[in-house]
Amino acid sequence: MRKDCLSGNQKRSALGAGRILFASLASLSFSSGYQDSRLKKFFSRNGTVILGFIFILSLIVLFAVGLSQNRKTSENFKYGIVFDAGSSHTTMYIYKWSAEKVNDTGLVYEIEACKVKGPGISTYATKLQELPIYLTQCMGRAKELIPKYKHQETPIYLGATAGMRLLSLEDAKLANKILSAVTSLLSSYPFNFRGARIISGSEEGAYGWITINYLLGILKEKQYSKDPSLEKNESQETYGALDLGGASTQITFVPKTVTKNTASKLMKFRLYGKNYSVFTHSYLCYGMDQALLRKLAKDSKNAVLEAYMEPCFHPGYERTVDLHEIYNTTCAWTFKVWLPFNKIRIQGSGNFEKCLQSINELFSISYCRYTSCAFNSVSRPSVHGKFGAFSAYYYVMEFLNLTSDKVSSRDMVNEKMRTFCSTPWEVVNTTFIGVKEKYLSEYCFAGSYILKLLEYYNFTDYWNHIEFMDKINNNAEAGWTLGYMLNLTNIIPAELPPPKPFSRPTYISLMVVFSLVLAAVFILGSVLFHKSWYFWN
Ligand SMILES: Nc1nc2c(ncn2[C@@H]2O[C@H](COP(=O)(O)OP(=O)(O)OP(=O)(O)O)[C@@H](O)[C@H]2O)c(=O)[nH]1
Ligand SMILES: [Ca+2]
């Protein structure tokens, strides 16, 4: 338990200090008081008033010092803005924290997640003039929510992820044009603009890992180890992070053992006085949207008379796609075949087993130069401990009602998926009214894809180790943005800040005790002074 009251030792030392103070004051009044008769007269008349005045002044000083050290946290808030420019869309997050408690864990929280209307910024290469309108609504929210006098000191960052990574592989100049346009646009706002850049897949994975462990209070657990409310986190291992975006997916965790194979994939951090070696890998083209595009491109070769049966779509569902749209992407071009038509009609058959088989072909496992690989010849240290799965992992599992603790095995998920995929589209469409058609029609594919992805990561027998998470502890959404800001604003120190000498209640108790001792000293001093004056006169 944290000590909030005075301990026996503290009480004894407080009283001891009082006695010494009293003795020195008394001796001072005896030794110097009688040497000057004018002074004696003055003290005899005004002594009590002077002592009372000194006493009150001391109290005021003591309390003023005390209050200045224990100022209410609501007085000085700081803010930070981060734009997550993802492949499918952009979201602006506003974080708020107390300047005084900045080093405590879990105290930065999200006050706004503003979804920018429209697709990801990588699609704006040919319509740069539309960017001001694109960002204006969320920037307006930032101006509204952050007090005006804080605007200038509020940092604003924009991090672009896999959509821009892909564009920069296809045409680096175009990607730079977008970033320049965004830079000049965000610089024109009254905030402290600190850069727009494409973050690497490793950064995206690592910052996501920092975010969830920070919000769960795991990074700084040691400092709280005597607090019963945080006991569950004592000596707890960090959570691994699983992020599934639209164009890339990341896996990040602290491996139990580091081998030669994994060493090159480790990122090292020193946070709150502890060292972490974090394995992280980002698979470009393995995000949800790009995986579906690649699957459609791969299976389009089966088209007969401009149509083919798609097992990952519900029976009765139909979608017509432009072949140009699916072949002309960096992720899918390897599946390009010549077909005598421009469009294909995709008809759902809702066959879960066939869907899984077909998804299998998206993962290359034929070659592994390490002892064990997840897929695409990327080394895979054994997964262990708990994992937090967010972004599309959460959206999909939440929709399928598979996020509960009771869903403890992969078999249960398989069963649910089998039934869901075979449900006719007409039934699905009329049951889930109001759900965006794009999302609704793709949940069968998405759920099956997640199952396969987690199988390749080797979670088959560890399904119950995964927690699907969105907002953590009601503080902030899981994702890379908070970790990015914590790092760039140095909110997480490398070393643990030294503990405060006293907690607030201890501090107040000490003030009260010392004030009472002071009062007693002055009252006694004043009585003794008068007695001695009469005695010597
Ligand atoms: N069902 C559902 N899907 C969503 C929702 N929001 C986004 N998605 C989809 O989930 C996938 C992942 O979304 P995000 O995590 O936002 O992806 P992103 O950040 O744009 O992409 P990356 O740049 O790869 O990280 C994409 O296919 C989105 O279209 C939602 O609210 N519900
Ligand atoms: Ca993302």
UniProtKB/TrEMBL annotation:
Which EC number(s) does UniProt give?
A: 3.6.1.5
**What is the gene name?**
ENTPD1
Q: Which residues cross the membrane?
A: none
Enumerate the UniProt keywords alphabetically: ATP-binding, Calcium, Disulfide bond, Glycoprotein, Hydrolase, Magnesium, Membrane, Nucleotide-binding, Transmembrane, Transmembrane helix
User: What job does the chain carry out?
Assistant: Catalyzes the hydrolysis of both di- and triphosphate nucleotides (NDPs and NTPs) and hydrolyze NTPs to nucleotide monophosphates (NMPs) in two distinct successive phosphate-releasing steps, with NDPs as intermediates and participates in the regulation of extracellular levels of nucleotides. By hydrolyzing proinflammatory ATP and platelet-activating ADP to AMP, it blocks platelet aggregation and supports blood flow.
- What InterPro entries does this protein's entry cite? GDA1_CD39_NTPase
Annotated catalysed reactions: a ribonucleoside 5'-diphosphate + H2O = a ribonucleoside 5'-phosphate + phosphate + H(+); a ribonucleoside 5'-triphosphate + H2O = a ribonucleoside 5'-diphosphate + phosphate + H(+); UTP + 2 H2O = UMP + 2 phosphate + 2 H(+); CTP + H2O = CDP + phosphate + H(+)
- Which EC class is this protein assigned? hydrolase
Cellular compartment(s): Membrane, Caveola; Membrane
Alphabetical GO CC annotations of the entry are: caveola
Q: What is this protein called?
A: Ectonucleoside triphosphate diphosphohydrolase 1
Species: Orycteropus afer afer
Q: Which GO terms describe its molecular function?
A: apyrase activity; ATP binding; GDP phosphatase activity; ribonucleoside triphosphate phosphatase activity; UDP phosphatase activity
